[in-house]
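Handoff note, outgoing to incoming analyst
You'll be picking up this chain. Sequence as last confirmed:
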Amino acid sequence: MRRPTSVVLLLLAANCATSAPRPPSGEDRVVQLVEQIRQADYAGDRRALRELHAQLAAAPTGSSPRSLVRYWQGFALWRRAINGFNETPTPTDLDADALAAGEDFEGALKADPKLVDAQAGLAACIGLRMYLHGTPDDEMKAMLARVKTLFTGAQALEPGNPRLLWVRGPMEWWTPKGSPDDTIDAHQARAMATYARGLEEIQAAPRTTPRPLQPTWGEAELHMSLAWSYLHLRRDPDVAQAEIHGRRALELVPSWHYMRDILMPQIEKARRTATR
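Most recent structure output, in case you need it:
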């Protein structure tokens, strides 16, 4: 017996309603935005990073930890500042980005004072502002004191955090003008040992499923920093090691604009020059 047309239509409507995808929850939307922030960072897309920061700040977060939401807001502007150093001419808003990112990291630490990744991000932003400030005055001294305090607290909580080690490395590499050459070499060796330790920590960590929004980045960044460091050693740059670490970083993140389009060509140019 044929069913009446109206019954068939009702059954079809019920099936469609059952199979229709549910709208994303607040937590799902936050996770999506964070993934887009990570992609925009590797793409060097500063415009997208600014827009995604605003979207994340305005998004309903559901039960997502406030500390981690604010962390990723800060991350977006922190990486926007870092990517700005790769542009010519250098943008004029890098200090503003670093300052705003630092405020987000401060907000994350108010929600969770023991969030080491936020401490590392804040220290990095202050370090960027110190570099841009460039004048050894009272403001610089105050910023340096805050960075030291942040590092001390973070290292007491998670001394092997790979992202903390990645942030610490550049500050160990930097040497004041006028320092003797052996001090420069010591600083560079210390920074590279810090990056290598970060990789060891990642390799030794148990393979577990991270919590949503938990920062897990760092392996590619540590390889990138080692590649850059081997290329820029004060004495005897090691181009072969720079290429090994550069290619490993690209294996992990093939879309990384800085690694693929800026640093690797520099390494390859140095290799060609060395073999002439």
